[in-house]
Specification:
45% of the residues lie in helices and 21% in strands. It is α+β, with helices and mostly antiparallel strands. The protein has a domain at 35-148. The strands form two sheets. A four-stranded mixed sheet has the order 2-1-3-4. Strands 5-6-7 form a three-stranded antiparallel sheet, with no helix packed on it. Helix 2 (81-96) crosses helix 3 and helix 3 packs across helix 4 (128-135). The longest helix has 33 residues, at 2-34. The protein is globular, with a radius of gyration of 21 Å.
Amino acid sequence: MKHISSLAKGVALGSAGVVVMSILSGCSQGQEQQKNKFLIIEQLTNGKYVVVEEIPTDGPSRAIIREKDINGNVTERVMSEAEMKALAEQEYNKFQSGGSELNHENGGEGMGLAGTILAVAAGSLLGNMIGNALMNNSNFAKRADSVNRSAYHRSAGSYTTNKSGSPAKKSFFGGSSTSSSAYKSTSYGG
């Protein structure tokens, strides 16, 4: 009986540890969203834009915009945080009225520059409340995910999509769980 009692305490402590780890990983993801971003945004041949590099930064948000002229020459320009914020605010207003590319489910590869900036940096430019509200919109989330090609985005993503199309949070151990999970009950000895 003593062995079962100590086993139960160990299981409870182990479960508590998993809960604490998942809470801590959730907290670090929230802090990650608040970080400013350094972006490299590239113009595609169709005139739309995608993010090719995303780096969290402690400094102000900024972006390098790579564009091609009619001769195929690549030019780069730096966009300040104030310029990025102004474009993001304009696009957010268009989104609120239903006129943004981010409102539509499928728009092909890339988006306009303002939509790309809003999709990738809404939380750091306009605040986390707006960023979280936008990410809860399924069309916005899909379009935002489609314009970000950066390795950072692929590795830092905390959500995947399951077969039904609803988000599934990645677990601490790399698997994913959905809201409709099945529980197994196992009993040991008597």
